[in-house]
Design goal:
This protein is α/β, with parallel strands linked by helices and 379 residues long. Helix content is 27%, strand content 34%.
Length: 379
Amino acid sequence: MGSSYVNGGGERGLDGAGPGSVDKGVDYANYFCTYSFLYHQKEMLSDRVRMDAYYNSISQNKHHFIGKTVLDVGTGSGILAIWSAQAGARKVYAVEATKMSEHARLLVKANGLEDIVEVIEGSMEDVTLPEKVDVIISEWMGYFLLRESMFDSVICARDRWLKPTGVMYPSHARIWLAPIKSHLIDQKRDHYDGTMEEWHGFIDDTRNSYGVDMSILTEPFTDEQKKYYLQTSLWNNLRPEQVIGTASIIKEMDCLTATVEDILVIKTQFFSSILEEDTKFSGFGGWFDVHFRGRSESPATTEIELSTAPSIENGTHWGQQVFLLNSPIRCSKGDNMNVSFVMNRAKDNHRLLEAEFGCEFKLASGQPLQPFRKKFFIE
């Protein structure tokens, strides 16, 4: 969940440009079909932070749209295409992989823009346009920015159809991480312990009632539940006071020049200082922001930022990704941490992500603290 989107990069694998061979039918069933429902579009269209950022970026930078050609990658309901036309675009190509394209056509016609906006049903990798475009606009961002691998198709569209002088909407993106405190760490551990207690009761009951010993399955069941409860990141709307340390940018992207290879693996190291006295470090919170700046040769008149940070009032439908430790660590103001971070696409599903944190502490008290390393699944 995260955008009204056309192909999110899976089909790139079919021609060797992406992360391996992907079955189009399976990819559609697992992913695209979600975006063909109006209830899902409504959730995104009701996100005022999202909507205001895109609306303002277009309406306050009409010089990028007046008399220009626009490509909306993953048009969904068609709202960005409609705004582009209302801002003065000469022609808008609105590409959508799902049957949501039918609703988009109705909406375009109802707003009297069918002579400007052309809705095209198909994947971005397969679509052929009659001309190059001046602007590519897309709401491609997934959870923690890169989940769903949707930016791949924007890159494909850019490389095939954007004029050398063209602009990207949004133009830049960043991913952030910061140490947090959260009561969810105890809740997740309690759920795991309760599930394992239930399992052992199930083993005893099956043996006593039906004469079958199922204990051989305890190890794989344990691994399965550990992954679900203790190793999978969570969607959450963090409150600003839950961020207990300095936030760091772990990835910056220029949408005009970024490549698929740039985002297949994110590897970095950052430092953070605890800002709160006598607190519990529960893990890390992650979020993103995107910016509408135009390009150096054709800058935006008004730069607009779309942020999903915990400080944003009322939040967004993206929320934040929360990476929880198995047990909290007691820390205090002035403590420092050196964090290594690696994130790559999951081996069994290119739309999901895997992340690994390594953390070393330097406590202001001088007390030694064991470093840790933990892997997470972003699903």
